[in-house]
Amino acid sequence: MKLKAFTLAVSLSGFLLGVTGQSLAAGSGSWSSNSNKDLKNAIELIEDEKYSDAQPLLQKAIKAEPDNADAYNMLGYSQRKMGNKDVALDYYTKALDLNPRHRGANEYLGQLYLELNNPDKAKERLAVLDKSCTFGCDEYTSLKEAIEAYEKAQ
Fold this sequence. Notes:
The protein is mainly alpha-helical. Helices cover 79% and strands 0% of the residues.
């Protein structure tokens, strides 16, 4: 009987990890599996720091998929990198309206808050990431390090 209960517990744990892993990946802002070609091309441009060139592709991606939190997140990121912080804030907010646990949008919004000298708001984003990243994630680590560097510089 003990072996049967143990086997059931192990099976259930594996199932829950599989389901949780899939849902976390979908909400993490992991665009490598995204099927939107315009978004993929825009991300390549962003990786090459061609932020303004990425804008039309991101707008096209949103037109095709109005609920694509990844596209809004990347619009926010590229706008922030171009110095348009108010516009970036709007896009990050839209991404988080669509997916409050979006890891990329939470991290990048936290980074924006640091740029706006609002570390308390950045820490709020860190707390969201802490809850979303059950076993830790790069976004949490990156924002935590940015907050620590910000505080040391003050």
